Amino acid sequence: MTRVRLRDLGLDIGSLPTGPFNAITDVAGVTVGYFTLVRDTPKVVRTGITAIWPRGPETWTDYVFAGTFSFNGNGEMTGLPWIAEQGLLGAPIGITNTYQVGVVRDAICALAVRDGVPQEFLLPVVAETYDGWLSEMQSFPLTIEHAFAAFDAATGGGPIAEGNVGGGTGMICHEFKGGTGTASRVVVVDGVRYTIGALVQANYGLRDALRIDGVPVGREIGPEIVPAHYSARAGARQEEGGSIIVVLATDAPLLPIQCQRLARRATTGLAWVGGTGANGSGDIFIAFSTANHVGLNEKISNVRMLAPAAMTSLFRAAAEATEEAILNALCMAETMTGKDGRTIYALPLDRLEHVMKRLRPG
After folding, report:
1. Residue 1: inside a domain, yes or no?
2. How many whole angstroms separate alpha carbon 330 and alpha carbon 182?
């Protein structure tokens, strides 16, 4: 069956409407680019880089407010001390594999030099999840040029690729093929529409924990139906680990502490799907708001903020967008064979339709 997004199967979840493309790029100005590397020689490689610009190249000099949250910290996202201190993001975000965070981080600095950016120094935000079960990560296949390709390819205002793409290329989610996914939600506050978009790199979870709109899909499509993720250790089942990175974007006017509060709500969406923040999992989230503009050399910036009492609808939107972004990653990812002949199978969409039709309330 052709890979399609969750809603293309007729499975609408959540209570809030989506943006026009149901993607993080529904937030005006946000752009996303990828570099995907799949090859079998001289090493088997299934990896890549995902690039997110809060407002395109203008991000270098027109900063956005940002906040972060670590649900479980067995992972990496660089640049967090400075965001905690200053609350501003003035560079694109990168996501890649565990061993190549440094390359992508350095590439963002080199990109700024290449483009003549006036910032004196950068502390970029780059996150990772582990793709070493399918990819020869130890061969360090990604280069600064590959990162440039991802950042230079970024586009917005439309749909973006999902599944086995960018940093999500070699990822596994609930013991099905995982990867990159995105979704969005729209809320109305005092007559004004605001969009919240999510992009995830999903690489976590056990099969029996997977739920879609409350339906225990993972138990219904168990390893006796679709082989699950097994370790090389005498066929023993892998303990729950892995990681998920969530990037949330919004055009609602939020201050850094409000972005931090929004980032925490990705935890709810993760839990709805079946993530529990296992000890071996790196579940790290970042949220940014494009509504305010803080210039590079401004002495005083005029900013707006949403009233605290109005945040609840955004919290719901962040949770729903995260939930659906994970499910879109699962629906769009394709079966992949990697190093040592290991195969991770895609979530079978025909069986998913059957299970949901049989067990979904209503």
Report:
1. no
2. 11
8-state DSSP, 227? -
**Which residues are identified as catalytic?**
243, 281, 283
For 210, the 3-state DSSP assignment is: coil
- The four Cα atoms 293, 297, 298, 303 give a dihedral, to 10 degrees, of 20
Residues 92-134 have pLDDT tens digits of 999 999 999 999 999 999 999 999 999 999 999 999 999 999 9
| Alpha helix stretches (DSSP H) within 12-156 | 80-86, 101-114, 144-152
Residue 293's pLDDT is 96
Classify residue 120: in a domain, yes or no.
yes
Nearest to 281 by CA among 289, 271, 290: 271
pTM: 0.97
Residues 18 and 21: their CA atoms lie apart, in Å, by 8
Q: Which two tokens stand for residue 109?
A: 């600095």
Pairing between β-strand 242-250 and β-strand 282-295 as defined by DSSP bridges: parallel
Pairing of strands 88-89, 62-73: antiparallel
Residue 235 pLDDT: 41
Pairing of strands 93-97, 343-344: unpaired
Look at residue 299 and tell me if it is in a domain. Answer: no
Task: Report how far apart, in Å, the C-alpha atoms of 212 and of each of 8, 204, 274, 358 are.
Answer: 15, 15, 9, 13
Cα-flanking dihedrals φ and ψ of residue 212, to 5°? Answer: -125, 115
Would residue 300 count as lying in a domain? no
Contact between 358 and 224 (Cβ < 8 Å): no
**Rounded to the nearest 5 degrees, what angle is found at the Cα of 41, between the Cα atoms of 40 and 44?**
45
CATH number of the domain enclosing 288: 3.60.70.12
Judge whether 318 and 248 are in contact, CB under 8 Å: yes
Q: Are 129 and 167 in contact, with CB atoms under 8 Å apart?
A: yes
Number of domains within the chain: 1
Domain span holding position 249: 6-293+305-359
| 285-316 pLDDT, tens digit each | 999 999 999 998 889 999 999 999 999 999 99
- Pick from 236, 233, 234, 217: nearest CA to 225: 217
